[in-house]
């Protein structure tokens, strides 16, 4: 959800006063929901025991589906004329998905923490630098992932570094 909220905030800010930003942002939010739908479908068909995908072997398929869906949505937005600034922000969905997918081949990182840190970084870059004050929310997400037993501290920190580093490395050059 942080990624969807960040996408809406950034798209609204970059296109104000035109309401078109919300359309672009909602399109990106739908893309984010596709990964969840793949997981729910897999649980319903008995592929996985629950929606948490706590076993390493369960993660690649939903991550790959979400990454491909994000890339298709990004390409469609580009084809239909989304503003350059929005495309720079929206490229984080397929790039982040691909990065977590690659990391999953070698270990496990917290996708939730990565999305939260990338989202806060994106909003701080494109909306207002004062939004960096939202970084304690990243710590809260990391803590929740530790508390539920889904990740180790190293996996949560790796996710936070991945999200922030990828956003800083990808978005500014595209602007």
UniProtKB/TrEMBL annotation:
Keywords: Membrane, Transmembrane, Transmembrane helix
UniProt cross-references to InterPro entries, sorted A to Z: PAP2/HPO_sf
Signal peptide (from-to): none
Source domain of life: Bacteria
Segments passing through the bilayer: 27-49, 61-81, 87-107, 119-144
Name under which the protein is recorded: Phosphatase PAP2 family protein
Taxonomic classification: Bacteria, Bacillati, Actinomycetota, Actinomycetes, Kitasatosporales
